[in-house]
Amino acid sequence: FRKLLLATGIAAALLAPIAATTSAAAQDVKTRIIRFGYGLSENSNQGRAVKYFAEELSKRSGGKFKMKGFGDASLGSDIQMQNALIGGAQEMMVGSTATLVGIVKDFGAFDLPFLFNNEREADAVLDGPFGEKLLKSLNDKGLVGLVYWENGFRNLTNSKRPITKVEDMGGIKLRVMQNPVYIDMFNRFGANAVPLAFSELFTALETGTVDGQENPVTTIQSSKFYEVQKYLTISRHVYSPWIVLASKRWYDGLSADEKKILNEAAVASRDFERKDSREASAQSVAYLKEKGMQINELSPAELDRMREMVKPAFDKYAADGGAEVLKDLQAAITAARK
Ligand code: TK8
Question: How many angstroms is it from 45 CA to the middle of ligand 1?
């Protein structure tokens, strides 16, 4: 009997790896090295979500998907990484939708100011048919859009003066993303808009190449902009999404099982990232104040004036070929409000 037990034990031990291999083969999952680039630091909402994503992929693939995050734009700026994905030299990234306008112009619709009132509206529009359609539009450009993460509502910082009314922006050299909607908007507000890659921003602020910038409070914290910027103005002028992208060349080589794992882990990362960003965002203002920033909030009356001032930016966007996408986006927002 002992012998029998032993034999069974040995048989089981021998069979176990075979069973594991068979189920992995049935799953059709190969070992995959995934280089995932991003612009912010490891210690940011972006970095935390990349880490979570990598862990989810590992779990869901039985350790076969090995995703390595490269933060601080170490693989390049948003635009450089998009091109690396298209060429197949890099597998994945997360970056701003705003920097995608050179590839799919329609992403610029998100950059028009004061569209969303809150995160709930943004989630509904991004995860609904409107956001989906934009993701799909990337496919014939060599990219696969997986999910949207939250960058957040953007606010102004500068080293010159507190901004309590739009005129205070006059003459301020303000770094904006490389996107015509931002350039147009801030020039209308009287600032001197300077398009620049995020990867060059801290140095530009430190050396005085630019006086200010605009980003969500989470980024102002994680990128340590408080070290080189005195004034923070809560303006929430644009809700800014991040988009998780894969190289289409690479993605097309995945099996159906592998695509399923990747897509499901991406959705899990989105849910984690939004929750984490919102929690972090609620702490950031107090943190920035403690770091010595002088903080003010724009009044509702002033925000109304700004809304009025940028109305022509909407007309310009529509006239430049964006009429249809803008109409669709506004309809999607109206639907989300119901
Ligand atoms: C990070 C950028 C950043 C964006 C910007 O790569 O450029 O200001 O807000 O998050 O995508």
Answer: 12
